[in-house]
Design brief:
This protein is 40% helix and 18% strand. It is an alpha/beta fold and 157 residues long. The protein has one domain: Rossmann fold (3-Layer(aba) Sandwich), CATH 3.40.50.450. It has a five-stranded parallel β-sheet with strand order 1-3-2-4-5, sandwiched between helices. Helix 1 packs across helix 5.
C-alpha cells in the first residue's frame, strides 16, 4: 500500500499500481500548507493512492512563465484525477481560483469532495451553490473529514 505524490510542475504518467488519483484543489497563496496535512492523511488510506498536489516549492507567481506552467499543470491534472478534493482553508483570501475550479467541476461529470473551514468567509455561498447544482455533495467542516470522505469514495469505486 503506497502513496504516490505528484507535485506541480512534475509531469504525470499513470503507472501500474498507482491506484486511484486525488487532486488537492484549494488555496495556496497566503494560505497555510494544508496540502501537506492532506498528503499525510492520504498516506494512511490503506490502499495505493496517487495525490496531485499543486503547491510547489519556490513558486514565484510574478513570473509569467511559471504561472502559465502552473495553470496548465493544474488544468491537465484536475481533469485526469479520479476525484477532486476541494478545501477552502481559513485565511484572509476568498481563494477565487478555487471557487472558479469548483464551479467548473460541479458543472461536469466527475467525483468531488468539498470541505470548508468554519471561518472561511464564503462558506455559506459554497454550501448554497452546491445545493443547487450538486445536492448529493455533503460539504465537510474539517480537512480530516473531507479527506476521509474522498478516500472512502476512491476505495469504494
Amino acid at each position: 500500500m503506497s502513496l504516490r505524490l505528484v507535485r506541480a510542475p512534475e509531469p504525470y504518467e499513470r503507472l501500474d499500481g498507482d491506484g486511484p488519483s486525488l487532486f488537492l484543489a484549494g488555496g495556496i497563496t497566503g494560505i497555510e500548507d494544508w496540502q501537506s496535512r492532506a498528503e499525510i492523511l492520504a498516506g494512511r488510506a490503506g490502499f495505493p493512492v496517487t495525490v496531485f498536489n499543486p503547491r510547489r516549492a519556490g513558486f514565484d507567481m510574478t513570473r509569467e512563465a511559471d504561472s502559465v506552467e502552473q495553470i496548465a499543470w493544474e488544468h491537465r491534472l484536475l481533469r485526469a484525477a479520479d476525484l477532486v478534493l476541494f478545501w477552502f482553508a481559513e485565511g484572509p483570501s476568498t481563494q477565487p481560483i478555487t471557487l472558479f475550479e469548483l464551479g467548473s467541476a460541479a458543472e461536469r461529470p466527475g467525483r468531488i469532495a468539498v470541505g470548508v473551514h468554519p471561518s472561511y468567509s464564503r462558506a455559506m455561498d459554497v454550501r448554497q451553490q452546491l445545493r443547487h447544482v450538486r445536492p448529493e455533495v455533503e460539504v465537510r467542516s474539517t480537512l480530516e473529514e473531507v479527506v476521509a470522505e474522498a478516500l472512502r469514495a476512491l476505495r469504494d469505486g
